[in-house]
Protein: MotA/TolQ/ExbB proton channel family protein
Amino acid sequence: MWAIVEAAGWPIWAIIAASVVSLAIILERLYTLRRGAVVPQGLLAQTLQEYRRIGDKDELLQRLQGHSPLGRLFAAGLRNVHGSREVMKEAIEDEGRQVAHLLERLLTTLGTIAAMAPLLGLLGTVIGMIEIFGSQNASGANPQQLAHGISVALYNTAFGLIVAIPSMMFYRYFRSKVDGLLVEMEAQAVKLVEVAHGERKNGS
Structure:
């Protein structure tokens, strides 16, 4: 592996750094965007059960706030449960924007790496081509310098694509997953609003 890095020349280090950052983001997002961690199954039913039992006490709100992103939406809604349905929905929407920002964290960086990696590979290719042309002199080509220039050009192009392709695939996957999770959280939050206000009206 070290021999390949040496053959690729100094431009490969920028691609290697990009690959390390990309891998770290992918692993972090795979862990953070787990469905069970973002939209825990049964949380709506559990929240409604607790709400019927103790109401909108701070104990319930604090537990929901620290539970999960979906719990944060429920907590925001229940803090305004005594207001109108519109006020409760607005509170959930405001919290939802913050949750969406949290879920989309680092995705811009991953997309940037996916777009920049081929350009870094192209930079290495250009540098390799410069070395190839530089190997030409009055007495002919310097074989060692010519071979090194070809290695720099080809290895950087290949490594740039190797980093860019999976980065773009995971970027698209995470964007789609975040959109799906946000839609599901919105649907459950709306159901919480409807049930909470329905019970309040029935009890009045």
